[in-house]
TrEMBL record, chain A:
InterPro entries: Adaptor_Complx_Large_Subunit, AP4_complex_esu, AP4E1_C, ARM-like, ARM-type_fold, Clathrin/coatomer_adapt-like_N. This is AP-4 complex subunit epsilon. Residues 804-828 are annotated as: Disordered. The gene is AP4E1. The lineage of its organism: Eukaryota, Metazoa, Chordata, Craniata, Vertebrata. One of its GO terms (cellular component) is endomembrane system. PANTHER family: ADAPTIN, ALPHA/GAMMA/EPSILON.
From TrEMBL, chain B:
One of its GO terms (cellular component) is cytoplasmic vesicle membrane. Residues 1-147 form the AP complex mu/sigma subunit domain. Pfam families: Clat_adaptor_s. This is AP complex subunit sigma. Belongs to the adaptor complexes small subunit family. Keywords: Cytoplasmic vesicle, Golgi apparatus, Membrane, Protein transport, Transport.
Amino acid sequence: MSDVVEKTLTALPGLLLSLDSQPGAAKLCATSRLGSLVRSITELTSKNVGEEMAEPPAGPRSPKQMKEIMVRAIYCEMLGYEASFSYIHAIKLAQQGSVLEKRVGYLAVSLFLHESHDLLLLLVNTVLKDLQSTNLIEVCMALTVVSQIFPKDMIPAVLPLVEDKLTHSKEIIRRKAVLALYKFYLIAPNQVQHIHDKFRKALCDKDPGVMTASLHIYLKLIKVCLASNYKDLTDSFVTILKQVVGGKLPVDFNYHSVPAPWLQMQLLRILALLGKEDQRTSEMMYEVLDESLRRAEINHNITYAILYECLKTIYTIHPKSELLEKAAKCIGKFVLSPKINLKYLGLKALTYVVQQDPNLALQHQMTIIECLDHSDPIIKRETLELLYRITNGQNVSVIVEKMLDFLRLSKDEYTTIDLVGKVAELAEKYPFPCSVWFIQTMNAIFSIGGDVMQPDIPNNFLRLLAEGFDSDEEDRQLRLLAVDSYLSLLECDTSGLPQRFLQVISWVLGEFSFLKEGLEPADVVERLGKLLDDDAITTETRCWVLAAMSKLCGSSDALCKAEKVAHKYTSCLDTALRQQAVELELLGRDVDLRTRVLPQHGARNQLEVDSSLSFLDGFVSDALARGAAPYKPPHQRQEELSQEKILNFEPYGLSLPVSLSACSLTDRQSPTALSLSSSLSGNSADPPLKAGSNLLKLEGVKRVWGKQGYLPEKQATEEALAQEPSSIFAPSHQQACSESQQTTFSTIVEQDQEKRQLASSLFVGLGSQNAPCLVRTVAQNLSDSTSEAVPAVGNTEVVEASEVSSLSGGSGPLAQPSSQVERGLESDLPSRLPATLVGLLRSDVEELCSGESLSLSACKVFDADALVLAIFLSNISDSSIQEVSCLISSEQLKVPEMCSTFSVLSFYLNEFVLFSLFVCFSLCLNHLYSEGVAQCQGWEEHLNLGEASLYHSVSPPASCSCRPLPLTTEEYGKMWLSFSHDVKQNLMLLKHEEEDQLEAALTALKEKLCLHIVDVIGAEGIMACQLVSGRPCLLHCHTHGGMLAIWLRSPIADLPDCLLYHCQKAIQER
Amino acid sequence: MIKAILIFNNHGKPRLIRFYQYFAEDMQQQIIRETFHLVSKRDDNVCNFLEGGSLIGGSDYKLIYRHYATLYFVFCVDSSESELGILDLIQVFVETLDKCFENVCELDLIFHMDKVHYILQEVVMGGMVLETNMNEIVAQVELQNRMEKSEFVFISRM
């Protein structure tokens, strides 16, 4: 069939061409041609005849016929046959045709082309013309196409025109313009920064449709930027929602007699974002949320949609018990609904809520159990997700079992990867039922997850085994169990096992099989050797097996066997495998070397890797002395290569041949150095050990089973176990037992009881007694560490009761106490900065917030490679404070090694500075886009007096990540030419009266953004700056008639764009 | 955001394809095939949501579909869209089609593909929901159709 279609398609360009070449030939009716094309194509599918398509030899001429052909081309594209020859004609049609043909042309363009298609350039002019058209429909079409395919660099061309459309008299145009601007915002947020107030106008538009469209923008803005910038709009959103819910909109907006449901959902979502962690804002919305809950009573899909959003909002914002109660009831409605879609959403809602309120899961436990056996895998999957969230030490084995059951049936790769990861996480988090269970679960994970699972699962497992826990005896047992189970696995058929699993098996056997008494290493070698006979095994796995063997060949018997196997591979084509085999032979011969390189328990001791390869220094200096070029890392070489590609504007000098020879020398040099290093250290380049080094590198991977985590968790379980009889489920379990005694004859009841038992095992330990509170523990840990530093303080001195009451409610910024001035905050605090930060440029110390007894202040210190935020927590009351703990969290900024920079500087009784924190933010490019927030929270704890907290967010301004880049004009010129990404824009200078506008603008930029002014020549100025990461950006400014033309260039794609935005801001704020 | 709207029949033949994010031609066809494969094996009595198509965007994305007689309407959306809301949007879209074509059937979609696209453009614009009010959508489409007729008269007079 396809060849015939291709014939048809090849006939099409002929038609299109004849359009240009033969005007005025015989006219043919084209209207039915799409029909005939469709018919022919469908006939072909059924009959598969190879007849030639009856296409008229002489083609159509008028745009009208062109339009027909274009629809045909669209049809062909949809079926997957490329019709790229028609793209240019689509653009032509959009350009030349009348409104109707334009419409087809635009449709075809938006379907055929994509953002980075070259032909789009040809469309810009047409779009511009149509945006200015008086014909409503033309404008609409242009706006649609603009919002669908316009790329970033074409936005400036159409932006002013689209902006104008915001004030158009027709609401449909305004609405489309708003959406087009929203699309622009998504693609290039910086370019539409200046029209934010116009969005506000759109929000207040008299037409509800326009207002609805503007909500898209606000939802995004609030999500991406700080919600605090938009808190003032909460009132308006609440009012709008109130009006909508109250039915104030025209009846036209009703859908199944619900007023504007989509609008309501959008508003609820915005409110959720605004009210998150903000009590004051949340209080404003309680009433309207209550109203929405009450109104949504009609039993229709769309009311449930609103209800669902409402629930999510209620659980996201600052909680109010009445609302929560009502919301919980609503969730019940969802979960118990016979409609499967609602059930699905109910489970989703439960998953969302259950962390805050585990009791809710208890209420619906029977439904959840039923959902576990549901015929729809999606429902099952969602239920497992819910169970995953409520897992604790007691129900983990049941839940993991359920998950594995699901995994065994599921074939979807994506689900497998996701769920296997979760099972592994649970198994590592709660390995308590017993070690056997843990090993078995991990085995199941490896055999089910196969080779699709995340590679860090086996890595983590091996690390756990290698590093062990607190008690040596337990470690030994766990390892022994693993060895046992793997030995028995190897006895069976191994052909079905995934490669990753085989790798794990061989590593464990190589490392720990000596633990098993009476097991001959030769035996193990033989079993491992059998693995190698399988052809399906990959080279990587072979390497692992050989590595395991080289660890095992302690006895001569084993060595003999291992060498026999390895000998085969000494002439193998794969270098890694060959190296492994040769190493095995070599190590086998030299026992001393072997014990040194591969000690028993080798995995337990930290391998010390000399990553600087310092032992090669002698070699390198010799080579350098002989005239070799210094080594350049690959990225530097790459950079130099790419720089060479740029046109050279300087005359060729003598330097060229020299640099060439240097280059080739380096290239010849580096591999030898590398291979030498690998053979010497025997470490970096050989794959089996690479896994070992991988393990060592895995720092920062979340692992709850660590040396610290193990013990407390265990205690927690014991406690929970002790509490079990009194747990909430216990009575109903007894009830179930008595019930079953009464009705033993009924099988249904038996099933029911089974389910109840399942329920009891699943939901055990879910009562309110163990609501996890991570924050609290962190705080306590920190407070422990501080109290160590505190000299023994006697009982707390009298603290008035009034202070306690005010403290307990004291979150959020409070009034500045007058005492602060007397204490000379500004003068004293900076002196407490550590010596390394003293000489540096810094901002003034600002008080962020204060309670009755604690005050939080901060200042920014601009270090060369980082922005340091120094946070001071001081005691401003007269009494002493016994313990203070502090928690710093930051979502958007990277805070490296927070604990190490946390330093207790001084702690005196009645002294006002308690301690200072230095948080070092590594600023990255991303920071320029989204202003990061660091939140710090201080606690103070009095004996028997509860706790109070201060809470504040600090957001370092984006400009903090810029540093001046001192350059000479010549250097600047060279760099300017070599940078490839640039942005140009004209900025309006507001102050016309100034004499030297350029000077003023440059100084403003310099001060606000830390730029370096390189030179000023007449009306032009050049400046340079770099990010803390060392990436440069150059600016070129030019003033003419009240405008400042800024031209930015940088080697990094997005840098000019965001810097431009900050320049814009700096100029405006001036 | 809506990432893609796919309409195909019970045999997986595409009837309307609209992507709001760029995918290469062969990728588009693969997405259609896999989506059909996922959707077609589900009974009518299971839920209308599907998660984690590995092709379009991973866990953040879900497929929301409805099955009418011979056609599947599938919307691929990200997590910022309400599931039930989209489900009703499909209903609105289909009802609008029904109003515009008077008892819409698969053949209407094939032979008036362009018109279906125009109607869709009034409902969803660049991945954002533009209009959910059926009367408003129909009014917009009719406005354009009137223009078509008037132009037709104009041409025939010439």
